[in-house]
Design a protein that fits this description.
Elements: H1 2-13, E1 17-21, H2 26-36, E2 42-46, H3 58-74, E3 79-82, H4 85-98, E4 104-105, H5 111-117, E5 122-127, H6 129-133, H7 135-144, E6 149-154, H8 158-162, H9 169-185, E7 190-193, H10 202-209, E8 214-216, H11 219-232, E9 249-253, H12 257-268, E10 277-279
Parallel strand pairs: 1-2, 1-3, 2-9, 3-4, 5-6, 5-7, 7-8, 9-10
């Protein structure tokens, strides 16, 4: 009797966690999740057919959020990470309303830690056009407004450049140079990366900003929040044996699998050269 009661709890805890983004940006979050939660398995969906989310109408992004969250839930994932700032801003509330008893972790620009770190009182945020325009983002900024002046700057075109098989660093520097210069002119001494694609070019942003400016990303805080949610729901995998990296993630893309795999290896390294990527038609 006891054995029958105990088995489902173990089965649930060892189920995968679903993670999705419009493309490769969420891989920066996945990397943090893999490092911080060594016994968890993941299903990663890159919604490349609808890339980029950043400049699309809000209702289209919300529709994709609900479509992918439904698919991941049907895969029996025990929780979901929305590894995309734009998707979180457009659809987190709706997804949580539909999946009320399912742990969903979204991602927001790290305004709070930035506002505590700044010495000039000015925080710059680089984000997509839709994130900057969203009501969720405006509310986030207003919450910390007494602590720091927040300057949000959209970066149209940056996601598309990062999504190329080989990141064109010179083109990215040319796009970012006037943006970063404007933030520095307004005395920002902390720059928050408000899109999960941007950590892959954080070295270029730091180079343009100089040594006196801190650059903050959000992968680790998301991993910590997921662990807290899984522990709270008794869903954390109690495993003690490290699994091979390739066995810990199943990759899906609504775009072209081989093209995604090339980007995966370029961004996360040769450990992923034998990864299998399946095409998802949703």
């Amino acid at each position: 009797m006891d054995k029958k009661l105990h088995t489902p709890a173990i089965a649930v805890s060892t189920q995968h966690v679903g993670v999705f983004d419009s493309g490769v940006g969420g891989l920066s979050v996945l990397k943090a999740l893999l490092n911080y939660l060594p016994f968890e398995r993941f299903e990663y969906v890159a919604d490349e057919r609808y890339l980029p989310y950043g400049d699309k109408p809000q209702h289209e992004i919300t529709d994709r959020v609900l479509t992918l969250s439904n698919w991941l839930r049907n895969q029996e994932c025990k929780a979901m990470v929305m590894a995309c700032n734009t998707a979180t801003a457009a659809g987190a509330n709706q997804a949580r309303a539909i999946h009320a008893n399912w742990p969903i972790v979204g991602i927001e620009p790290a305004v709070k830690p930035a506002s505590m770190l700044t010495k000039t009182g000015v925080v710059g945020i680089l984000a997509t056009t839709n994130t900057v325009a969203s009501e969720r983002f405006k509310a986030l900024v207003e919450r910390f407004d007494p602590m720091a002046k927040v300057i949000a700057h959209p970066c149209p075109g940056l996601v598309e450049l990062i999504e190329q098989s080989l990141i064109p660093e010179s083109a990215i520097e040319n796009l970012l140079k006037p943006v970063v210069a404007e933030l520095l002119h307004k005395q920002a001494d902390v720059i928050v990366l408000g899109c999960t694609h941007y950590p892959f070019v954080s070295h270029l942003i730091s180079k343009l900003a100089g040594p006196g400016v801190a650059v903050i990303e959000t992968g680790l805080p998301v991993a910590k929040q997921l662990k807290t949610r899984l522990e709270g729901e008794n869903l954390l995998n109690p495993g003690t044996e490290n699994l091979p990296l390739l066995e810990r993630v199943s990759f899906f893309t609504t775009g072209q699998p081989e093209a995604f795999k090339t980007k995966l290896v370029n961004l996360l390294g040769v450990d992923w050269r034998d990864a299998k990527v399946q095409q998802l038609k949703v």
